[in-house]
Amino acid sequence: MIKSVAKYTSYINNLINKGHSRSVRTKKNIILAVIVKGLSILVSLLMVPLTLDYLDSTKYGIWLTLSSFIGWFTFFDIGLGHGLRNRFAEAVARGKYKLARIYVSTTYAVLGIIMAGVCVLFALVNPFINWSLVFNSQQVLNNELAPLVLLVFSFFCLQFVLDLVGIILSADQRPAINDLFRLISSILSLSIIYVLTKVTAGSLWFFGLAVSGTSIIVYLIVSVVLYSTRYKQYSPNFKFIRFKYAKDLLNLGVQFFLIQIVWIVIFATDNVIITQLFGPEEVGPYNIAFKYFGMITMVFNILTAPLWSAYTEAYVKEDYDWINGTIRKLQKAWMLLVLGSIVLLAISPFFYRFWIGNKLTIPFFMSFCMFIYVVAVTWGSIFVIFLNGIGKVRLQLYFAIGAGILNIPLCVLFAKTFQLGPSGVILATTICMSFGPILAPIQFKKILNKTAKGIWNK
After folding, report:
1. What is the pLDDT, as a whole number, of residue 378?
2. From CA 352, how far away is CA 362, in angstroms rounded?
3. Average pLDDT over residues 383-406
4. 55-59, 179-183, 338-342, 435-439 — which is least confidently predicted?
5. Do residues 322 and 23 make contact, with C-beta atoms less than 8 angstroms apart?
6. What sign does the CA torsion over 179, 183, 189, 193 have?
7. Cα torsion for 156, 158, 159, 165, to the nearest 10°?
8. Cα–Cα distance for residue pair 424/256, rounded to 1 Å
9. Of 86, 368, 408, 381, nearest to 264 (Cα)?
10. CA distances, 149 to each of 97, 122, 287 (Å)
11. What does the pLDDT look like over 174-211, one tens digit per residue?
12. Which of 163-167, 208-212, 253-257 has the highest mean predicted lDDT (pLDDT)?
């Protein structure tokens, strides 16, 4: 028995540690990510019914819409996070460790200045906004909404800067470690909300404090520990701030910035559109279906997340065989996930009933639309993650701008004019995301075959 266990252990160990060092890092990351994401899914599933028990359907819809609204402001980093990820990975791959520290220090300085200004500006205009009108809710909630929005937005600005340590982990091909810290934050939030259900009535203020505050505490601790140990040679320091290098970060980052704005418009406005067209109570079913099928995209993200910076390193070192081999493996994994998506679609009515009971009703057509969405997006992500890793994003940028312009009218057309309801919103979003499944594979082949010219090579 002991020999048998040792045999299997040895086999698994050899399987993990076999191959290129880049592949070994990727496999270890995937294993850890599977564990972390599995626990994250469990926490997420527990969070929904617990939240519905604490908040009524209207307040739950308001919170989801508020989260989307706050998400709009992620573009204020002007793409610095993605620019840092690529430039940091390139510098380390070339052995330029001082340059990597300059990039880190400069990014913290620039982003800190930006977010401080944004937070102050928001605090000044917040008292003049009628949030009850924005969230299409009862006017009596306005006194609760104004301080809630200010609290969540202030935490968001601070979190924005603290998240840069996660960028460094991702650039170092260790995104699963960052996911672990997010899991810890989610578990803390879940625990606090559970306590709140026992000691307080449904309060958006307490709920917002529990969800936003825990993340701040976790990432403050993480930043101090990592920059004192593993990443000490890259730790942000005033002596290494070079604002002239901000231009280098922004040359690439501003393209990610513009693409990021579009995706924010496409995704964050979905909840707002549903709220305005059908009321906040319809946001819940849409988001629950999105979370359910989001398990598929989450699994696929586990496979692709460590590859962004791995592609950066491989492309710098011209290791094209490794790149092609990795893409082929991802395509095989995608086919398995399509089969998994079909199973999820078939059992969705039973799973919803088991998950949330009769609290909300999710139409089967909405689930089918979510199925189409995840199949298309995951296929496209195979190639988009490569293009992002090597910084060839100009074509994606132009397509994204067009998609962003069309998204809102297309959502209204499908949801209201074609009378598809909230399901029409995700269909419109899928169309707007068609760069990945259609154009990205073509651009990938051109780049690897060295036939990419003009916009295909920028």
Report:
1. 94
2. 8
3. 90
4. 55-59
5. yes
6. positive
7. 160
8. 28
9. 408
10. 40, 10, 20
11. 888 888 998 998 899 888 888 888 888 777 778 888 88
12. 163-167
Closest alpha carbon to 352 in 281, 287, 420: 287
Residue 249, CA distances (Å) to 99, 158, 169, 253, 452 in order: 12, 21, 18, 6, 24
φ, ψ at 345 (rounded to 5°): -65, -45
Q: What is the C-alpha separation between 297 and 238, in angstroms, rounded?
A: 39
Question: Which amino acid is present at 345?
Answer: L
Eight-state DSSP code of residue 55: S
Q: What is the DSSP letter of 200?
A: S
Q: What percent of the chain has pLDDT over 90?
A: 27
Q: Is the pLDDT of residue 453 over 80?
A: yes
How would residue 11 be classed by pLDDT, with cut points 50, 70 and 90? low
Looking at residues 161-180, what average pLDDT do you find? Answer: 88
Concatenated DSSP letters for 399-418?
HHHHHHHHHHHHHHIIIIIS
- Report residue 240 as tokens: 């290494």
Instruction: Answer yes or no: are the C-beta atoms of 46 and 191 closer than 8 Å.
Output: no
Where does residue 48 fall: left (phi above 0), alpha (psi -120 to 50 degrees), or beta otherwise? alpha
Report the 3 state secondary structure along 295-354: HHHHHHHHHHCCHHHHHHHHHHCCCHHHHHHHHHHHHHHHHHHHHHHHHHHHHHHHHHHH
Integer-rounded Cα radius of gyration of the chain: 22
What letter represents residue 156's amino acid?
A: F
Distance CA 362, CA 429 (A): 19
Note the pTM of the prediction, 2 decimals. Answer: 0.73
CA–CA distance, 69 with 300 (Å, rounded to integer): 26
Domain coordinates of the chain in residue numbers?
18-457
For 343, the token pair is: 């199973």
Q: Give residue 4's pLDDT band: very low, low, confident or very high (50, 70, 90).
A: low
Instruction: Record the tokens describing residue 19, joined without a space.
Output: 């191959």
At 87-129, the pLDDT tens digits run 898 888 888 999 999 999 999 999 899 889 988 998 898 888 7
Instruction: Supply angle C-alpha 51, 53, 54, rounded to 5.
Output: 65
| Residue keyed to tokens 């880190």 | 104
Q: With CA atoms as reference, report the closest residue to 234 among 328, 165, 133.
A: 165
Q: Which two tokens stand for residue 337?
A: 């996930």
